């Protein structure tokens, strides 16, 4: 089922939760709403579900305006972060609940419900837990039961609000891979909310980046990560080093220091810019007579596997700033770095954004 939201506005008192949000969710896609707490992603999910009403704008489901439709009429399956399972019911009864609550004319027979519940429990690989109660399950098992319950009513769209947020890191990683495989099998239009960038990039077909009630960027995981369109997106997705500088010709001046940059785009000479570099896009120079690059001091060296992470503190006018560099372990060993050592950082690639009145001093 396709979903469109057009011009959605939502306020809670003086707080603007959603500011003119318009999005298109094609049939069969798994889409992540990604952003920091308070950016409006859960509010948007609840408006699509019918659990919340927008102040203005429309929700269109399969070409029909569903803005005024009751949540039951929208045929939406909703999975909450904290499962919301009925504690006094067994796993079987939790999954069967939605089917039993349907009007008599639409309700399946007792035998049909039993068969379908077991099919759903097999789908989420937990058929052997049918007689257990929620308190007897692990967090990961409860979340899969919550998903089976949502699928039991044959929803046209599946909405998940921070589905793995309450789980530990290992279980979360296992479940998101499982969810991706399940979606590939069912092909049901699905939207999930998360503030975990790794989760969104690993699981989703498309990522919607949100910030302060607005949509910052929409695209595939590869598009939003490799080609961020705003300083916020660049800073939110993955580790990043931020430099404040001034663009002159093919160089960015950061205080009295300068680094080469060959792709200024449409940014005029003399403009104040934000310059971004990923940790793997910085080289470390240890020659004390080399005065090019950005001065920094090594504060920590962490080598795990084939990679080394070098943490550094800014020097001179950049005191209080923090930088991170990723190097192949062999390269880090060749440099013979030590804590407290003064070095220079040389970007192999910089992405520039002009500082404008609409982009505040802290874009991250």
Could you walk me through the main structural features you see in this protein, from its secondary elements to its overall organization?
- The chain has a six-stranded mixed sheet, sandwiched between helices.
- The chain is elongated, with a radius of gyration of 25 Å.
- Strand 7 (157-161), helix 5 and strand 8 (189-194) form a beta-alpha-beta unit.
- The chain has helices spanning 41-49, 91-100, 110-123, 139-152, 169-186, 197-203, 221-226, 231-236, 329-335, and strands spanning 3-12, 15-25, 30-34, 56-61, 64-65, 76-79, 157-161, 189-194, 206-211, 214-219, 241-248, 251-254, 257-260, 272-277, 282-285, 294-304, 307-314, 322-328, 342-347, 351-354.
- Helix 2 crosses helix 3 (110-123) and helix 3 packs across helix 4 (139-152).
- It has 364 residues and is α+β, with helices and mostly antiparallel strands.
- The mean pLDDT is 90.
- The protein has nine helices and 20 strands.
Helix content estimate = 25-40%
Number of distinct beta strands: 20
Straight-line N-to-C gap = 35 Å
Radius of gyration, in angstroms, nearest whole number? 25 Å
Structural class: alpha+beta
Low-pLDDT stretches are none
Secondary-structure topology with pairs:
Layout (H helix, E strand, L loop, with lengths): L2 E10 L2 E11 L4 E5 L6 H9 L6 E6 L2 E2 L10 E4 L11 H10 L9 H14 L15 H14 L4 E5 L7 H18 L2 E6 L2 H7 L2 E6 L2 E6 L1 H6 L4 H6 L4 E8 L2 E4 L2 E4 L11 E6 L4 E4 L8 E11 L2 E8 L7 E7 H7 L6 E6 L3 E4 L10
Parallel strand pairs: 3-8, 3-9, 6-7, 7-8
Antiparallel strand pairs: 1-2, 1-4, 4-5, 9-10, 11-12, 11-14, 12-13, 14-20, 15-19, 16-17, 16-19, 17-18
């Amino acid at each position: 089922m396709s979903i469109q939201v057009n011009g959605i506005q939502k306020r809670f008192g003086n707080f603007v939760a959603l500011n003119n949000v318009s999005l298109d969710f094609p049939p069969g896609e798994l889409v992540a709403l990604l952003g920091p707490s308070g950016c409006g992603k859960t509010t948007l999910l609840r408006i699509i579900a019918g659990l919340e009403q927008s102040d203005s704008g429309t929700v269109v489901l399969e070409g029909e305006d569903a803005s005024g439709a009751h949540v039951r009429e929208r045929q939406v399956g909703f999975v909450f972060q904290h499962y919301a399972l009925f504690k006094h019911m067994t796993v079987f009864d939790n999954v069967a609940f939605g089917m039993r609550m349907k009007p008599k004319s639409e309700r399946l027979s007792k035998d049909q419900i039993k068969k379908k519940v077991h099919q759903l429990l097999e789908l989420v690989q937990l058929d052997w837990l049918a007689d257990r109660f929620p308190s007897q399950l692990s967090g990961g098992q409860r979340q899969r039961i919550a998903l089976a319950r949502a699928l039991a009513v044959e929803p046209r769209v599946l909405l998940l609000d921070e589905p793995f947020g309450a789980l530990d890191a290992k279980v979360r990683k296992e479940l998101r891979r499982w969810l991706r495989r399940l979606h590939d099998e069912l092909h049901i239009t699905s939207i999930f909310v998360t503030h975990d960038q790794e989760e969104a990039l690993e699981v989703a077909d498309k990522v919607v980046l949100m910030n302060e009630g607005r949509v910052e960027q929409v695209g595939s995981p590869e598009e939003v990560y490799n080609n961020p369109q705003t300083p916020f997106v660049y800073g939110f997705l993955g580790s990043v080093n931020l430099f404040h500088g001034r663009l002159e010709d093919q160089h960015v001046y950061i205080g009295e220091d300068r680094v080469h940059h060959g792709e200024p785009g449409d940014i005029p000479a003399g403009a104040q810019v934000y310059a971004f570099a990923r940790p793997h896009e910085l080289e470390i120079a240890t020659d004390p007579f080399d005065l090019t690059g950005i001065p920094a001091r090594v504060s920590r060296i962490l080598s795990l596997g084939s990679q080394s992470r070098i943490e550094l503190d800014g020097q001179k006018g950049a005191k209080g700033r923090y930088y991170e560099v990723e190097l192949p372990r062999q390269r880090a060993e060749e440099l013979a770095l030590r804590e407290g050592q003064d070095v220079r950082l040389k970007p192999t690639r910089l992405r520039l954004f002009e500082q404008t009145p609409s982009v505040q001093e802290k874009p991250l």
